[in-house]
Amino acid sequence: MRGRAWEVCAVAVSRETATACQAPGASGTSRAEPQTPPGSGIPRRCKLLGGPSGWRRFKDEERNDIRQRALEPGTHLPVGENQVNPPLGPRPSADGWRGVIGDEFTAANAATVAACILRVVRQAQSCDDLLIGFDGREQGEAAANAVAAAAQALGVRRNIVVPHLPTPTATHAVRTGAADAALLITASHNPPNWNGVKAKVAPGAPLTSEAERRVVELLSGPADPSPPPGDARATTTWKPAADLTDPHVAAAAALTREPARRRLRVVVDGLHGVAGTPMANLCTALGWRPIPVGCQPMPDFGGLIPDPSSPASRTRAAREVLASGADLGIVLDGDGDRMYVLDERGDSVLPHELFALLLEHRGADEPTGAARRVAITVATGTIVHRVAERLGYEIDEHPIGFKHLSPLLAQGLAAAACGGVGDLGFAEHGLDRDPFAAVAALADVLHRTRAPLSVLVDDVRTRNGALRWFETRVPGSAGPDRLRAIGVRALAEVLGARPQRITEVDGIKCWLGDGQWFLLRPSSTEGGIRLYGELADTPHVAAQLDKLTGMVRADIGAGPHRK
To answer: Residue limits of the Alpha-D-phosphohexomutase alpha/beta/alpha domain (predicted)?
Structure first.
């Protein structure tokens, strides 16, 4: 990863002195920026990999598989050792670069990625005011300081550093003009020993695919021998998170049209990330009574994985919903851009079920002249297809990652968008996923209907057909032809069924009858093959899913990893 920006951020970090970088911290005290020696380059083990949530590393045990696949057509590979301009580069995502703290992720590496992002962004828009946020993870503050130094070297005039800043709040700040762009030091829903960099740009959206491609070119290209001199007038100031979260919460609350008929009790579990307290504040603004759990940011997230899509991470909130007699629960990921909702029984409402419910009740809230189209990812449940089609929306499937959906909202080509990990958005609320806006929309539904959440969700399920959703991951790798053969064979042997059609928007998706489907796709995030799907919710479905997973695991583990 010897990119042009490496020399830039090496100069930037070395140029800054402790005196020049003193800034008031979150506690109001003064601190000197940690000096980050540039060294001779980024560590040899640093890997770039694309995925729906960032550039990642492949696990050590899968590197031999990567090398074996180097000449396989259609395979996306990381920038490997001894590659400066690889023929098959990484597939970037909207959420930047991530890695293990102290290994792939260091303050210097974060500054390198940030510098490349800024070089690309500044070709398309002004970037005088840069918002730099970090969450509670280790090395977040040091990385934010290094990013600020690199930004100043590139000519950014005003850095605004905000500790414990939720990603949707940063997006809202860019959307409303409080900053030209935002760089977030966070690894979102990944385990505590990870960290990374995300980017949000005007008009409040992730980087486009083309911008990401250019960032990767900078990261993998030759060093730039003449970095810019920077701006002697540049400043770095620190602000408390409340300076930005309060306006964001107020804007979300203002989206509601229905007043609260009674004071709902709502469990808010921030999983010890940075969005729990702002979300609890939104609940208060909506006329609800929040019951905060895990709302204090912690570097280790209290021993949890800060990912609400993991059932284990929702257990605490479910217990608290039942113990407190709450009306619903909200569980957020580490940086607050993913959300799961629980009903009053403590049962999880899957993201596509929540989206379908909100889409049905959107009605009068839909802007005049809005596109009659819904954009979803390939892993989104069938219930969204059925609700959208019944309401007269066209529906399109896209690769996994909200970066593929956000441009459609921005261009007026979609009225709403939904992914499969608690990420959803409506054009009237913004151009990126925002759980705060989603909760405001849910509040309108609950206030208008005065019905318990479980009743509303069960009704949507009953009217649109109940299917059993599943998602898992198996180790190994395979090209598209092999994945197709493995999927078709597994379905034939386990279900006695052949796909009615197969699509390859992202991975291999086998469509069966009655809304059932089975998707196999390589995971750029953690390596291996991701399996998603929905099958008829019969008494035998659990055993069928076990057999499907077992067959795929065995087939992928057998023989060479070739297409």
So the answer is: 94-218, 256-346, 352-459
Q: Lowest mean pLDDT: which of 30-34, 128-132, 257-261, 323-327?
A: 30-34
The DSSP symbol for 60 reads G
If phi > 0 it is left, if psi is from -120 to 50 it is alpha, else beta; for residue 319 that is: alpha
Measured CA angle at 148 (ends 89, 159), to 5 deg = 120
Give the start-end residues of each E strand in 81-230. 97-100, 129-134, 158-163, 181-185, 194-201
pLDDT of residue 558: 59
**CATH T-level topology, domain 91-239:** Alpha-D-Glucose-1,6-Bisphosphate; Chain A, domain 3 (3.40.120)
Strand order in the sheet with 289-293: 289-293, 265-269, 328-332, 339-342, 348-349
- For residues 206 and 432, the answer to whether their CB atoms sit within 8 Å is yes
Q: Which residue has the tokens 């550039």?
A: 55
Spatial distance between the Cα atoms of 245 and 249, rounded to a whole number of angstroms: 6
Tell me the average pLDDT across 401-414. 91
Q: Give the Å distances, CA to CA, from 120 to 126, 227, 336.
A: 11, 14, 26
CATH assignment, 240-465: 3.40.120.10
Using an 8 Å Cβ cutoff, are 328 and 343 in contact? Answer: yes
Tokens standing for residue 267: 């469990």
Between the CA of residue 126 and those of 60, 131, 228, what are the distances in Å? 40, 13, 16
Is residue 357 within a helix (H) or strand (E), and if so which, with residue range? helix 351-360
Asked if residues 244 and 173 have their Cβ atoms less than 8 Å apart, the reply is: yes
Sign (positive/negative) of CA torsion 421, 426, 430, 435? negative
Q: What is the DSSP letter of 208?
A: P
Q: Taking all residues of the chain, what is their mean pLDDT, rounded to a whole number?
A: 82
Put residue 113 in one of left, alpha, beta given phi > 0 → left and psi -120 to 50 → alpha. Answer: alpha
Model pLDDT, residue 118: 95
* 410 or 41, which is more confident: 410
Measured distance CA(77)–CA(55) in Å, rounded: 11
**Same CATH fold, 240-465 and 91-239?**
yes
d(CA 515, CA 376): 15
Asked if 101 and 139 count as a contact pair (C-beta separation under 8 A), the reply is: yes
CATH of 467-557, one of 2.60.40.10, 3.30.70.640, 3.90.76.10, 3.30.310.50: 3.30.310.50
Count other Cβ atoms within 10 Å, centred on residue 307. Answer: 23
Q: How far lies 299's CA from each of 90, 107, 247, in Å?
A: 29, 16, 26
209 within 8 A of 403, measured Cβ to Cβ? yes
> In this predicted model, what pLDDT tens digit does every residue of 311-320 receive, in sequence order?
999 999 999 9
Cα dihedral sign for 426, 278, 339, 288?
Answer: negative
d(CA 30, CA 38): 24
Enter the pTM of the model: 0.82
Read off φ and ψ for residue 375, nearest 5 degrees.
-105, 130
pLDDT at residue 77, rounded to an integer: 27
Extents of the domains making up the chain? 91-239, 240-465, 467-557
